[in-house]
Amino acid sequence: MSNSLKEITLIFSENPIARAYLYLLIKKKLFSNKFNYLNNKIIFNKFFLKLRYYSTFKKTLGYLKSKEILILIKEIEEYFNLEKDFLIDMYTFENIYKLKNIEFAKHQDINNELNIEYFKSLKEKNFLNTSNRIFKSILDTNKNFYHIHPGYMYKVRGADGTLNSIKYYDNVGATFFLMDNKIDNGKIIERFERNFKKIYFPDSLKLKTHDLYNIWFSFFDPAIRVFLLNKMLSDDISLVDYKNINLSKEENNYYKFINKSELRDLFINKIFFD
Predict the structure, then answer these.
(1) 160 — alpha (psi -120 to 50), left (phi > 0) or beta?
(2) Which residue, 61, 78, 253, 266, has fewest beta-carbon neighbours within 10 Å?
(3) How confident is the model at residue 31 (pLDDT cuts 50, 70, 90)?
(4) Model-level pTM?
(5) Which tops the pLDDT comparison, 12 or 199?
(6) CA-only gyration radius of the chain, Å
(7) How far apart are CA 27 and CA 84, in angstroms?
(8) 71 is in which domain, residue-wise?
(9) Residue 128: which of 27, 199, 229, 211 has the closest Cα?
(10) What is the tens place of the pLDDT at every residue in 173-214?
(11) 219 near 72, Cβ under 8 Å?
């Protein structure tokens, strides 16, 4: 069984992260990669797929009609050396049909008993997670589940990874790791961090905090994850090439979601300028 990242199976759950990874595989012409849709086969009916797509991305698709947000998207793409319009085109509905090897999980809950038996039966060994669920009993299937965390582990673990990185360290980062039974705690294969510079976003002051938060997780968060994934695919990183890290010399912090009052201050004073 190959341990090449280029042959990893994508666990697809409709969200910005999944859309970003899927589109990167398409751009890399890795059409033979499998992706495992986290639901049963009946949902793959085009009507139900579109229904889920539009219910998930209703706000995001609305943001794409804003000239100011399109300027922000361009800034983020340049920040992470992504192709022009990558963060727009990744939201094209039909992308989901471009990978040829589609399989279907038995339940949308990754830890459901039906999924445990299903994953045990698969010959594939390595899976890249895109869901926001905490993996528990599914980890007992003798499969390898990988994740890209939007923070420099183990220094920044937990929720709001990019935002807490900026809040406490004035930088951003991401980590590709093998998941275990603790949150953001597994063996690390690749990671990076860089200083954060404020991003030009005209009229950011006019937007409500929840919109700033949704915009951030529609575009910046998937961008930092796909930046690391793209680099690893280009370097053909092995999935068993774990970093030898001296844990006694590592910071190890677990952060919670940032509260709403702090969020606004963070966005206006440390993240965006107009």
Answers:
(1) left
(2) 78
(3) low
(4) 0.93
(5) 199
(6) 18
(7) 12
(8) 5-273
(9) 229
(10) 999 999 998 989 899 999 999 999 999 998 888 999 999 999
(11) yes
Give tens-digit pLDDT for 49-60: 888 899 999 999
**Closest to 11 measured CA to CA, from 118, 163, 157:** 118
CATH of the domain at 167: 3.40.50.170
**All residues at 6 or more sequence positions from 105 whose CB lies less than 8 Å from its CB, including other chains:** 11, 36, 37, 38, 39, 40, 115, 118, 119
Q: pLDDT at residue 43 above 70?
A: no
Task: Tell me the C-alpha distance between 150 and 156, whole Å.
Answer: 9
* Count of domains for the chain: 1
Q: In the prediction, which pLDDT does 61 show?
A: 96
User: 158: which residues sit within 8 A by CB, 6+ positions away?
Assistant: 151, 164, 183, 184, 253, 254, 255, 256
185-217: burial string, b at 16+ Cβ within 10 Å, e else: bbebbbbebeebeebebeebeebebebbbbbbb
pLDDT at 1: 57
